[in-house]
Design goal:
4-stranded antiparallel β-sheet, mainly beta, Beta-clip-like, 1 helix, 4-stranded mixed β-sheet
Length: 147
């Protein structure tokens, strides 16, 4: 069974990173954008996730302390794999596997979430979001900060 994606989303070129997920229609706050409950990629270990990341193939979502849901090859990619990071995201993770709008999103706007919301590993990457409150570096332990 495949993942669910709102009919109001599409993949297109992003200024943030390669491809991105964009609103093809207005999306209201609280609206479900994607549900990965029935259509996860392969479940892989932290070690396997690190190997993929080092190869530059980082289409994955951490779903527990020791597991990731990941596309492990090009043919497995789907719309949700193009959700890019922003330090000022417009959507978030509800539970483990549902992506919902945290505010109204206008047609044409890129749909983003904060990668720190789904990471607790030693993950680290340079941020390209250029938002007003950009943290410059995204880590899997950012959520532990008291501020």
């Amino acid at each position: 069974m495949a993942s669910y994606f709102s009919p109001n989303v599409k993949v297109k070129k992003s200024k943030l990173e390669g491809g991105g997920l964009f609103a093809s229609g207005d999306i209201k706050k609280g609206e479900l954008i994607a549900d990965f409950t029935n259509g996860l990629g392969k479940i892989i270990s932290i070690d396997e996730a690190e190997k993929l990341y080092k190869k530059g193939f980082d289409y994955m979502l951490q779903i527990s302390d020791t597991q990731f849901s990941a596309a492990t090859k090009e043919e497995e990619l789907e719309a949700g794999d193009y959700l890019n990071h922003s330090c000022e995201p417009n959507c978030g993770i509800n539970g483990k596997l549902k992506v919902v709008a945290m505010r109204d999103i206008k047609k044409g706007e890129e749909i983003t979430f904060d990668y720190a919301m789904s990471e607790s590993s030693e993950f680290k990457m340079k941020c390209n979001c250029k938002s007003k409150n950009c943290r410059k570096v995204i880590t899997g332990v950012y959520w532990k900060r008291k501020d």
